[in-house]
Amino acid sequence: MEKEYKLNRLETTKLMGPMVDKHWAELRTAKERGERVGWCSGPMFIFPYAMDMKCHFMAGYAAYCAGRGAAEQVLEAAESVGELLDTCSYHRLHMGMAAAIEKNIPVKEEVLLPMPDLLIIGRFCTEMSHYAEGLYRRYSTPVVAVDMPPPQDKEDIARLEKYVEGQIRGSLIPEIERVCGRPFDYDRMSEILSVLKQACTLRNECWEFAKVNPTPWTLWDYGVSIAPIFYMMGKPESVTYYTKLRDELAERVEKKIPVMLPDGENYRLYWDSWLPWAFLGKIIRSFTKFGAVPICGRYPWEFFDHPEDIEPEPDPVRNWVQLYYTKSHIAYHASTKGGIDLISKLVEDYSIDGLVMLASKTCRFWQGQVPIINHIEKKYGIPGILLEIDQADASFYSDAQVDTRLQALFEMIDGRRRVI
Amino acid sequence: MIVAGIDLGSLATKTVILDIDATMLSFHILRSGPVYHGVAETSLGKALDSAGLARDDVAYIVSTGYGRRRAPFADAEVTEITCHARGAKYIIPEARTVIDIGGQDSKVILVNEKGHVVNFVMNDKCAAGTGRFLEVMANSLDVSIERLGEFSLQSQQEVEVSSMCTVFAESEVISLRAEGCAVMDIIAALHRAIARRIIGMVGQVGMREKVAMTGGVAKNIGVVRALEYKLGTNIILPDEPQISGALGAALIALDKVGSARDRM
Fold this sequence. Notes:
Chain A is α/β, with parallel strands linked by helices. Chain A has helices at residues 16-28, 46-50, 58-67, 71-80, 89-103, 127-139, 157-180, 186-209, 219-224, 236-254, 280-288, 316-324, 336-349, 369-380, 399-416; strands at 6-7, 37-41, 54-57, 118-123, 143-147, 260-261, 267-272, 292-297, 354-358, 384-387. The radius of gyration of chain A is 21 Å and the shape is globular. By secondary structure, chain B is an alpha/beta fold. Chain B folds into two domains: 1-92 and 240-264, Nucleotidyltransferase, domain 5; 94-237, ATPase, nucleotide binding domain (Nucleotidyltransferase, domain 5, 2-Layer Sandwich). Chain B has a five-stranded mixed beta sheet. Chain A binds chain B through residues 370, 373-374, 377, 383-386, 388, 398, 400-401, 404-405, 407-408, 411-412, 415-416, 420, and chain B through 66, 78-82, 114, 116-122, 124-125, 204-206, 252, 255.
């Protein structure tokens, strides 16, 4: 009889639902309290946070919307006002939400946010321009765009850092000061970075536990736990959360309690690109029936993987840009070369058996997935597959296609283990 | 003792019966039909009949293909990727790249000297460039699908079908017919369009000599020639390319029986 696998869910991650709900509820009601609201794509939301604006984060909203089972109806609202299916599903979710507000298209109430006083675009892909242009043209939303080109090689990094810093100081901060009617609060930004540093240091301790075999947690658990170190950054609850998580993981390791019951994982996997927010439950079930767990990934690792580089003083703005470019190289990891560097390290550190690359139908941000699979296969003898789906749009998802590719990956791994 | 491999494809269900020495005793190909109901049992029964064997003689069954879970009596199910690689490698030991074009999917598989899959790429959930695509085009041109290959080799003039979407390509075919283009030329254009799509997939994994082709579309000499031209190499064809997946499944069944025996 085939072994039946079951995920052993962490108690700490169950705390995340209420924390996330609180964040979005505060955002929904911000204007009633006379607070300023920002919408943000990319990592620039720390600047409105420093000015106590309530701010939403583009991918975070997609995860929230999908989690509430509202993505399909919001995407339908977008299509009804002419948004093309081939464009970024994150972008379409926002255009759909705006259309639902404007035209009273029925969607779940809790996913409707107040229209922003300022749209802040971290333009690391061309779709961000369409997002900004669409909202500005249709709703006259004030926009400030910070061009953040991903470096293709390490020699690009210093030049790009200077370019991005110049835009933040010359355009973004003055625009936020105009919207808020007061000078930018550099001290508050430093405080946020201090809390972020504590939370990320704890998070890295949690990552260390994933190197253990059997692992006490999965990338799915970490996916659920990203919010405190990203769009909920700077809140004391983020440190409390990661302290609890670290303690629970330490206890599991000490007592040899695996995340994959009954006796640990069969396959340890790397996951590339966005997490599949709209189908997380389906994907988790597809992995679990084979005893497979994703352990690490390029997107989840872009959340400040080197907390020692976070320096709240003396210049938080400079430090913020450095985190993306010269110090932690976060932006570089999206490129093919940077991806190969990072993924090679993850494969070695986390004893990875195979790669699963979400090749998004509507996002071109993550580069080089095919060459990366080929490179890693040659270097480590580890196979990889592409899952041609989307992170938010269910119309691009097929159970049979995903199942066949996953099963084929596990058969390739077994072939290398001489099982088949 | 005998084993069976059953490949439940979208258009056809194939069964291969092997004896303990991996000698093929019989095979059977049957149209899958819309719901797969009973097709695996029927195909297995007919393959056993033609070998003069009974169901009780079968020690192990492996199912494969998109309908692999519709054979509840199978002892194990394995993907068509692994099975096609294994089957093709068995028939053509020197094959390192296997192009498989079946009813509703196409895949390019890199195989190592042991018959293990090194890497693969598949088409996504669109039917472009598959057997179903050709079936729709054949209907549209009122030509039997079996004759598409020989007709395309008679093409005199190059015309272009640019779309690989089955629906749009059908519109293009109808337009070309309306313009008076010869059926042979249109069929050749369709075969080149399929070859273009497959070449892109070969590029993703990187072609390694030698190249074998399996799946029902390998019976279409027009597609094979178009692919050979684009790849710049000869393609080796099994005698019966449609049963490679079922053969691979049967070989895996033999392995399973062997490992069970080794454990005893």
